[in-house]
Amino acid sequence: MKYAFIRAHRGEFGVRAMCRVLRVHFSGFYARLKEPLSHRAREDARQTELIRQAWAESGKVYGYRKLTDDLRDQGERISENRVARLASLAGIAAQVGYKRRPGRYGGKPAVVAENRRATVRG
Known about the structure:
Blueprint: H1 2-8, H2 15-22, H3 26-34, H4 39-57, H5 64-73, H6 80-90
């Protein structure tokens, strides 16, 4: 966020002065200019694509645990927590099973016997 501000206002103010005011090191700003995405961000993007492919191959059914197993079978070193985080950010979720709904399940209707006690005795 700070680096984006510095990049946007480079023409108006000096880079070192803005870095000093925003309390960031100028070498960090120049490193960010040279390589905008960090190693972790690039790795997350690559692994998100692998997760998306494994999820599509499963018929969009698998959750993060089974996706983790699939990726590990492919030789990828990745934890369940990371798969859960990346899948959540990518909008990937397991297909949840259906719930049994109450209702009629066929058969003959119950026949209620006639109430004989209600008759008047005389």
